[in-house]
Amino acid sequence: MILKGYPRISESFISSEILLLESLGIKLEIYSLRQPRETIIHEHVRKIRAGVTYIPEYILPGLRTIIKSNRRLFQRLGPRYLRCFAGAVSRALSRRKSATIRHFLQAGHLVQTRLSAPGVQHLHAHFCHTPASVAFFASELTGIPFSFTAHAKDIYTSEPDQLIRKIEKASFVVTCTRYNADFLARLADLGPNGRRATPIHTIYHGIDPDYFAFRLPAEPQPPYRLISVGRLVPKKGYDDLLKALAVLEHTGFPFHFTHIGDGEDAPEIKRLAAELGLAGRTTFLGTLSHDMVRSCYRKSHLFVLACKIAKNGDRDGIPNVLAEAMACGLPVLATNVSAIPELIIDGETGLLVPPQDPPAMAQAISRALLEPEAAIKRAKRARQRVEREFDSKKCVLKLHELFRQALGGNDTGTPFENRFADQDR
User: Fold this and answer.
1) Which pTM does this prediction carry?
2) Same fold, 2-206+393-424 and 224-389
3) Which CATH architecture has domain 2-206+393-424?
4) Topology of the domain comprising 224-389
5) Which end of the chain is more exposed for a tag (fewer CB within 10 A), N or C?
6) What is the domain partition of the chain in residue ranges?
7) Per-residue confidence at 191, pLDDT binned at 50, 70, 90?
8) Using one digit for the tens of pLDDT, what is the confidence trace for 53-64?
9) Distance (Å, whole) CA 20 – CA 2
10) How far apart are CA 333 and CA 191, in angstroms?
11) What are residue 147's DSSP bridge partners?
């Protein structure tokens, strides 16, 4: 499994998936293109048995290592290596992006150091940008089939032609929402029989309902406690949420807002809170462990999230924090952007408002808190929906079946260079 970074606090869905796949008998090795940059590690990560190997992230700092590996691989593969390298150079020149060469050299390093020996039957990348590019080139060099999971930003900020090429070459594609799957399907051409050559599967990330045990909050009393969890980046819409809170502040509505998470926009968001006169109404806790986040859910009256489509096209899929809050029994309010309506049914399991509409968000916050009986009914239905559709143990069974089929159909008893002996002659 090829990842951009491991472990990452904001990508607990990947480490949870790995742990569940291991419990189902899939033997995994993890290759990360980036060293961990956070000090907090979710407890379930410590239970993962798979080893992790870090591939040099940048060429210059790891130049000697990368060049040495690729030189040895060239000596082994000869013409095949040259053909693959020439293809990478051609794409780099046409795209005017040197990153393509970096991804090829990282793939060559991975192939030489691990994939040269028998044993690896399948490559899977999480995210369809850099990790899928490395998996693509590693597959070209070895003949080992690859697949990838596409998530959110990686889909909508990728060059369509590059994404199409990866879809066409992959044995299958997984994505975490129907919204994403429809987008990817529109990119992919139909085959002569009217079916896509590469199947695209929707598999939700899901959460562990047992960990986020259901408990209805006490009837909310002022000051109402609002909470949100997410990275402080444009697509999360925290600027819009703060403006909605400012509307409530001006009407005298009693509340306190707590945010959990970090991100590159943290200074700007905190500055905006002060400018809107919300300094005394807001608390920014930064990154916390899962246990601490769960504890904060239990102390809150309403979970709010104001996602939107960023200027660069970036957008969320289904933020797992929404499912976590719903599982806990915490009423939720979000925007109807991207795939969020696949989780939250407006008026049934939560409340939805249009993105970038602070007045509508403010009005919905007030409604959610001042109509507690309706909120409790929605919370009960929300828990049922999470158990039915977003239980990670049920979701991962679908991915396990895909990997089981992939592993069952590939014989890796022969060193990979022998697979191409005839065509290389």
Assistant:
1) 0.90
2) yes
3) 3-Layer(aba) Sandwich (3.40)
4) Rossmann fold (3.40.50)
5) C
6) 2-206+393-424, 224-389
7) very low
8) 999 987 778 889
9) 17
10) 41
11) 124
